[in-house]
Amino acid sequence: MNFNSPKQIVEVVGLSAQARTKNSTSTTLVLAFLGGAYIALGGLLAIVIGGGVPGISAENPGISKFLMGATFPVGLMLVAIAGGELFTGNTAYFIPPVASGRLKLAQMLRNWGLVYLGNFFGALFVAYFVGYLTGALTAEPWKEFTINIANVKTTAPFYKVFFKGMACNWFVAIAMWLAYASNHISGKILGIWFPIMAFVAMGFEHCIANMFFIPSAMLLGAPITWGDFIVNNLIPATLGNIVGGSILVGLLYWYAYGEKKI
């Protein structure tokens, strides 16, 4: 059989989560740094391609959104295939083994905290050294495009960012579920591409990607403070991502296919 069944996926992601708890703190942080950097690199590519067609964006904004969605998935492909720790995916992986009693809640929370921190540093590294210092985003139309993205993300109401975050990680976690379904790299790439393209094109909120998008805009002169970023976007996006990954994917699939406590 060339792919894993839904029940097998739940088993595989549970084993993956268990293996992650055996990594040292330093290893987890390094892998998380790489995960955040890879997502940021996907975000940078999405801006360069999707933001580089202002004429098309003005006349056919859906095409610009599709171009961003079509290119952003490279980041998650790197995480899934080359290796890396990503907070949003881990919100789903850990639920089946915790619900089945094979992992402790404290082990899950330790991983989530370390990975979130490492992802933040990786995303900021790419924003400053790759997006800003290289000049990749400092020229027009990319500068204005990046600032506009950040302005939209930091001025939306809390509830809207939360629900966009929930929808986003529903897609992201399912993308990783599909990646774990395949035993071949080509299948993993296809499984990742469609859901990630969809959430980006629809403008949903990914907390790790926003660790790149919004600080990049701040570096480019956007009138956004760290307080604006954290309170107006990062907190509600993160909470929404947790609900989308842990409940809508991890918990529901564990309930359907996972090992139950007796």
Automatic annotation (TrEMBL):
Record keyword Ion transport present: no
GO MF: formate transmembrane transporter activity
Keywords from the named record: Membrane, Transmembrane, Transmembrane helix, Transport
Domain of life from the UniProt record: Bacteria
Pfam families xrefs: Form_Nir_trans
Family matches, as InterPro entries: Aquaporin-like (IPR023271), For/NO2_transpt (IPR000292), For/NO2_transpt_CS (IPR024002)
CC annotations in GO: plasma membrane
Entry's localization field: Membrane
The keyword Zinc belongs to this UniProt entry's keyword annotation: no
Family statement: Belongs to the FNT transporter (TC 1.A.16) family.
Name of the protein in question: Formate/nitrite transporter
Source species: Acetobacteroides hydrogenigenes
Species classification: Bacteria, Pseudomonadati, Bacteroidota, Bacteroidia, Bacteroidales
